[in-house]
């Protein structure tokens, strides 16, 4: 199937890609503004495919991060994650039933532990970025690793759960 729109042929898109490909990281972030509708997610998918490195997509509003993730998937992004925001009270690290906290911890741990997939696009909002996440070193120190098929020390596991 042939694409209806070849985003890469646009002069502004070519300039943006050239900067991303050739400028050192010290040159600062790149911002695509002045776009409308779903063009920016389409552009992000194009950039991710062309550069083969992770992209952080920051939306101005809380609800936009989920909508952008849907657009990214629609445009063919292979690896999309949403870094969610706590609405209301904010973080309660002791609440094991908090799905937002679990997702934030899962992503923070994964991003700190291993290199990110080259085609990852992380969609989030400004509000989510300013909320705290635990220090990755503290997460690594405090976690309990359990492996299927391996025996675990019951006393040590119980002590870990109590602490």
Summarize the structure.
With 163 residues, this protein is mainly α. The chain is built from 7 helices and 3 strands; from the N terminus they run ααβαβαβααα.
**Counting H and I runs of at least 4 residues, what is the number of helices?**
7
For the termini, the CA-CA separation is: 57 Å
Taking pLDDT < 50 over at least 5 consecutive residues as the criterion, the unreliable ranges are none
- The CATH level-2 architecture is identified as 3-Layer(aba) Sandwich
Number of domains: 1
Mean pLDDT figure: 85
Structural class: mainly alpha
Reported by name, the CATH topology is Rossmann fold
- Helix amount, in percent? 40-55%
The radius of gyration over CA amounts to 19 Å
Give me the side-by-side strand order of the main sheet: 1-3-2
Relative strand content: 5-15%
Number of strands: 3
Q: Which CATH top level class fits?
A: Alpha Beta
Q: Which terms summarize this structure?
A:
163 residues; mainly alpha; Rossmann fold; three-stranded parallel beta sheet; 44% helix
